[in-house]
Write a structure and sequence with these properties.
The protein is an alpha+beta fold and about 130 residues long. It is built from two helices and eight strands. The chain has one domain (about 10-30, about 55-125). Helix content is about 20%, strand content about 35%. Strands 1, 2, 3, 4, 5, 6, 7 and 8 form an eight-stranded mixed sheet that branches.
Length: about 130
């Protein structure tokens, strides 16, 4: 049985090209409302946001394509996989395991994410998706 544990914070959800998740990724900031927790631990916990999470990507190994990550200023947390700064995360998402996946940032809630995206995009124009 699943239950919801109230929480606050921000989640970055990631949308990928539906046919090939290595072609591009679009990132959104979402207000975290809580966590959906499976009491039997049969399923991984997932964030509860206003609206719905993007569809999970079906990227072939070894490129990693998380559906969402947690923003815990000043760090991004990819559960059980990766932790680091926002700029490091963007580079990792675009290039992990040999990928060259352009990114597009659609940050409207968090000034830190918007400013971080803008600085990273200016420094990495070859990794920016024009959407």
């Amino acid at each position: 049985m699943a239950m919801v544990i109230p929480a606050t914070g921000l989640i970055v959800s990631i949308e990928y090209d539906l046919d090939d998740a290595t072609l591009w990724a679009r990132l959104y900031d979402n207000s975290l409302q809580g966590w959906v927790v499976d009491e039997a631990a049969a399923k991984l916990d997932k964030p509860l946001i206003i609206g719905s999470l993007t569809t999970a990507a079906t990227t072939g190994a070894p490129i990693i394509s998380p559906q969402w990550v947690s923003w815990l200023a000043p760090s991004i947390i990819v559960p059980d996989l990766w932790r680091g700064s926002f700029a490091e995360f963007l580079t990792w998402l675009a290039t992990n395991n040999g990928a060259h996946r352009p990114l597009e940032g659609r940050f409207r809630l968090a000034t830190d994410l918007y400013n971080g995206w803008t600085a990273w995009a200016q420094a990495n124009p070859d990794l920016v998706h024009a959407g």
